[in-house]
Specification:
By secondary structure, the chain is α/β, with parallel strands linked by helices. It contains 20 helices and 16 strands. Strand 3, helix 3 and strand 4 (78-82) form a beta-alpha-beta unit. Helix 13 (324-339) crosses helix 15 and helix 19 (423-430) crosses helix 20. The longest helix is centred in the first third of the chain and has 31 residues, at 108-138.
């Protein structure tokens, strides 16, 4: 909970009262610090004084702060307190959105009871909103499967719900295999453009020589093989959504052309001087840190600003291990239906192995692992050997001595071995295009 009062002994008294009951208390001493604290994290309840340094009796400063809090978050339960309390001030504070009122000096049991009741109610309502969000986003007809119950995924769900209905450009970041394309589909499905096309393109996998033709289209005779007019991806996505995957791999020269379309909504097909207007929402995805790439001069900063009106970061699977059993069960149900296998669940040792494994390929690797295990399993349960994964997490010492390039090269070698050298399967498992995988194979001399 957050406690706001300009008197240190009041803050100390509240902390001494609540700490033995397991209530974490964050104390601030001014209205400005209240708003700063609320912008930095979520609280279950706010206990705030109505009188600060500007005056000591009217409660006006506290009422003004209460109005600001209501504009910021109407759902946050606020309990107000003052040494100069009266019924009129109590009524006014409740009119402005306060949930309750206490007078100094307070009765410990009453204050503790008020805090518990309002905090528990707030938590219950927040969970109900979360479940409603999940039902709307994750179980609606036509929505892609998206299993996400770990605390680290709640911000992702909230952002999808908030920005999905808008036309804002969204940058989706995260490691390979974390589900960036699924988030793009959810954002499109939640928008007013849902009935229009979602056009996906691996922007980083397009050869530079054909990039403009693929993205912007071309007219007949624009180059040797241009035998007919071709509509580009932007025009295909007109009035809908364009999903640009692997955006960090787009060459700098092509980034400038992308930026122009995002800024003006206008483009010309290759070989044409006719300007065409498009109305497209752009969703972009990358596993790279575009801010670092911009500083290094590999990515245009102005394009980055255009792409990430909102940024949604997907945590790696190792950062949301609570979701592994749910994801594994989901993939098991899908695979056993597909392959008509009578498999009921995972053996405890198999589930333990999955919980301990590092999952460098994230959710995509888990999906492929479960699918393979379903094919290999002979009984009614999936056993550890069916998974063909390490039974414990990699030791930190071996990773600490490796560079990022060495780790990437090792991962590529491991996946290539698992796929028996099949480039298409390995690229899919790694979340790369064939072209991007070939570049890495050449780079690391694999």
């Amino acid at each position: 909970m957050l406690v706001a009062d300009d008197q240190p002994h009041i803050l100390e008294a509240v902390e001494l009262l609540l700490a033995p009951h397991g209530i974490a208390v964050h104390c601030v001493r001014s209205p400005e610090l209240v708003m700063e604290a609320l912008s930095e994290r979520d609280y279950d309840v706010l206990l705030m004084d109505l009188n600060y340094t500007r005056d000591t009796t009217s409660g006006k400063e506290g009422l003004d702060l209460l109005a600001r809090i209501q504009e910021f978050d109407k759902r946050l339960p606020v309990i107000v307190m003052t040494a100069w309390g009266n019924i009129d001030l109590a009524v006014e504070s409740i009119k402005r959105g306060a949930r309750d009122f206490v007078q100094k000096p307070w009765e410990n049991e009453r204050l503790l009871s008020l805090i518990r009741v309002h905090a528990e109610l707030h938590q219950a309502l927040r969970r109900a909103r979360q479940l409603e969000l999940e039902n709307r986003l994750l179980r609606a007809e036509g929505m892609p499967d998206f299993v996400a119950s770990a605390p680290s995924m709640q911000l992702v769900l909230e952002l999808i719900a908030q920005v999905g209905p808008s036309d804002a450009n969204v940058l989706i970041t995260g490691e390979h295999g974390t589900g960036k394309e699924i988030v793009a589909k959810l954002l499109h499905s939640a928008s007013l453009r849902a009935r229009m096309p979602l056009v996906a393109v691996n922007a980083g996998g397009l050869p530079e020589g054909t990039f403009e033709s693929e993205i912007f289209g071309h007219v007949k005779g624009a180059f040797t093989d241009a035998r007919t007019d071709r509509i580009g991806r932007f025009e295909l996505a007109n009035n809908g959504t364009l999903f640009l995957d692997e955006i960090a791999n787009v060459p700098l020269r092509q980034q400038a052309k992308l930026l122009r379309v995002l800024e003006t909504g206008e483009l010309e097909r290759v070989g044409s001087s006719q300007t065409r207007r498009v109305d497209v929402r752009v969703l972009a995805a990358t596993n790279a840190n575009l801010h670092e790439e911009a500083v290094a001069g590999n990515f245009r900063e102005d394009l980055l600003f255009r792409l990430n009106t909102v940024e949604i970061h997907l945590p790696a699977l190792r950062e949301r291990r609570e979701d592994i059993p749910l994801l594994a069960a989901h993939f098991l149900e899908r695979s056993r239906t597909r392959y008509r296998k009578q498999i009921t669940d995972f053996a405890p040792a198999a589930m333990q192995a999955m919980m301990q494994y590092a999952w460098p390929g994230n959710v995509r690797e888990l999906e492929h692992t479960v699918e393979r295990a379903v094919l290999l399993a002979r009984g009614e349960q999936i056993e550890p050997p069916n998974l063909a994964i390490a039974s414990s997490r990699p030791q930190a010492g071996s990773v600490d001595t490796m560079s990022i390039e060495e780790m990437e090269a090792q991962l590529i070698r491991r996946v290539l071995r698992r796929c028996d050298g099949n480039i298409s399967q390995a690229a899919d498992a790694l979340g790369l295009s064939r072209a991007a995988l070939y570049r890495r194979i050449e780079k690391y001399g694999i």
